[in-house]
Design goal:
Layout (H helix, E strand, L loop, with lengths): L6 H18 L5 H14 L4 E3 L3 E5 L2 E7 L3 E3 L3 E6 L6 H14 L3 E6 L7 E6 L1
Parallel strand pairs: 5-6
Antiparallel strand pairs: 1-4, 2-3, 4-5, 6-7
Helix pairs in contact: 1-2
Length: 125
């Protein structure tokens, strides 16, 4: 029995990611990959919300500040795009904060800046 959370959904998302990297390679701005992934998600029937606004709370009070992850896919997986040399601890902390704010259980950090292949890091609560 597998312990991988949302295995099939993650597989579909990763298929879209690999297709974008295969076509575009690395070196573009995150916004370019965002747009390419939207096209690929539509092609592969991956349901998504692009850059949703996440409201934050402090002691049950809504804050004025909010978060905007790149995607929420299948209403349960956060996908955050990066275009950096390597995924850093602060990127992982960012996705952990998104997960806490949404009470979702899985986040994927996708680094299109990595070479020779795209880097995907799973963050699970």
């Amino acid at each position: 029995m597998s312990n991988i959370i949302y295995k099939e959904e993650s597989y579909a998302i990763q298929g879209a990611i690999f297709e974008v990297y295969s076509e575009m390679g690395n070196g573009y701005l995150e916004a370019v990959y965002q747009e390419c992934l939207e096209i690929e998600f539509e092609t592969k029937n991956v349901s998504y919300i692009s850059q949703p606004t996440l409201k934050l709370k402090y002691k049950k009070r809504k804050l004025k500040k909010s978060y905007k992850p790149d995607f929420i896919c299948f209403n349960k997986i956060i996908v955050e795009i990066k275009g950096v040399k390597a995924i850093a601890k602060e990127h992982q902390a960012q996705v952990l904060n998104y997960l806490k704010a949404t009470e979702l259980k899985l986040g994927l950090i996708v680094n299109f800046g990595a070479y020779p292949k795209v880097e995907i890091k799973r963050i699970a609560l």
